[in-house]
């Protein structure tokens, strides 16, 4: 499906109406005969107006820690619409209608400032490392495995989701493409969940890791995100931003400062042996470094990465 389209045409088709068509084609979103029968059932709200049939959900607003939805009743004027909680709609068997409305709202919020124009889509593919010439003129069926992965990721990120879940995103990608994907994830303002066997990629981006093996789940935390593992990808033509190069340079500078290889021959005293940090001090240091890194991620592109030193306060 869609193999005859170019990546640019595919994205135009997918978001032509504002919503994500791929989502609505899922079996979990399509109304079954049982769902349609449920919509024909009479519902009595106990307000003395008798039973009525649900026609559609037409609005949503925050209510306590969840949402309540505006229900339009079949053959009733809009002034008779009702506000019904999410839990009540679920009890009535309208989970798919609720999910469909939530999907629509998420797409509307994410696409509020994006133009579905070929030039804008080309820029979107370029940001993810896919050459615009390929995105505009080559059919998806003729692309390599790595290029198809980029098309999938571009499609998932077009509507600016709050949370991105990537299952084995590194498959078929070369090192340059891995670096480009790492930068895209780094600059992404929402949350990211990665499912991957690539320890280098996960270790470079994820400050928290959960290892699943032999029916057991183990938690592993890392001291800091280390994008400098992809410094090879900063070569000309790799598509990486200067932020990665500055990160690698800062990492190299930090290594030089703390390497202990300086020539101390002119010194007339022995270097004082450093006191071993306690677990509490190490944890506090990790927190400070992570906060500095988060602040750097939110800073303008080109801002030098803060240097982490062992003797910081």
UniProtKB/TrEMBL annotation:
Annotated source species: Verticillium dahliae (Verticillium wilt)
SMART domains in alphabetical order: CHROMO
A Pfam family of this chain: Chromo
One Gene Ontology biological process: translation
Domain Chromo residue range list: 51-106
Record carries keyword Repeat: yes
InterPro entries in UniProt: ABC_transporter-like_ATP-bd, ABC_transporter-like_CS, ABCF, Chromo/chromo_shadow_dom, Chromo_domain, eEF3_ABC2_chromodomain-like, eEF3_chromodomain-like_sf, P-loop_NTPase
Chain residue ranges for the region called Disordered: 255-313
Molecular function via GO: ATP binding; ATP hydrolysis activity
Entry GO CC: cytoplasm
Biased composition (Basic residues): 270-280
Source organism, top-level taxon: Eukaryota
Compartment list: Cytoplasm
Keywords attached to this entry: Cytoplasm, Repeat
Protein's name in the database: Chromo domain-containing protein
């Amino acid at each position: 499906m869609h193999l005859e389209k170019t990546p640019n045409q595919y994205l135009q088709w997918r978001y032509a109406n504002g919503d994500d068509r791929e989502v609505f084609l899922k079996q979990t979103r399509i109304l079954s005969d049982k769902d349609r029968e449920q919509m024909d059932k009479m519902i009595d709200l106990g307000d003395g107006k008798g039973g009525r049939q649900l026609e559609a959900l037409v609005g949503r607003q925050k209510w306590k820690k969840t949402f309540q939805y505006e229900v339009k009743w079949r053959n009733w004027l809009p002034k008779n619409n009702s506000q019904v909680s999410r839990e009540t709609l679920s009890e009535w068997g309208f989970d798919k209608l609720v999910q469909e409305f939530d999907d629509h709202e998420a797409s509307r919020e994410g696409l509020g400032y994006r133009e579905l124009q070929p030039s804008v889509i080309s820029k979107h593919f370029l940001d993810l490392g896919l050459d615009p010439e390929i995105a505009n003129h080559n059919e998806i069926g003729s692309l390599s495995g790595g290029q198809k992965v980029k098309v999938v990721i571009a499609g998932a990120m077009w509507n600016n989701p709050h949370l991105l879940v990537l299952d084995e995103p590194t498959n078929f990608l070369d090192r340059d493409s891995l670096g480009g994907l790492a930068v895209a994830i780094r600059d992404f303002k929402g949350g990211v969940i990665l499912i991957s066997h690539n320890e280098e990629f996960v270790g470079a981006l994820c400050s928290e890791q959960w290892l699943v093996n032999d029916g057991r789940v183990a938690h592993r935390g890392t001291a800091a995100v280390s994008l400098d593992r992809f410094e090879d990808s900063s070569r000309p033509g790799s598509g990486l931003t200067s932020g990665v190069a500055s990160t690698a340079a800062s990492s190299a500078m930090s290594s030089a400062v703390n390497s202990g290889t300086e020539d101390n021959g002119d010194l007339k005293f022995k270097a004082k042996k450093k006191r071993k940090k306690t677990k509490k001090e190490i944890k506090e240091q990790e927190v400070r470094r992570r906060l500095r890194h988060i602040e750097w991620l939110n800073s303008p592109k080109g801002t030098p990465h803060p240097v982490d030193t062992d003797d910081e306060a």
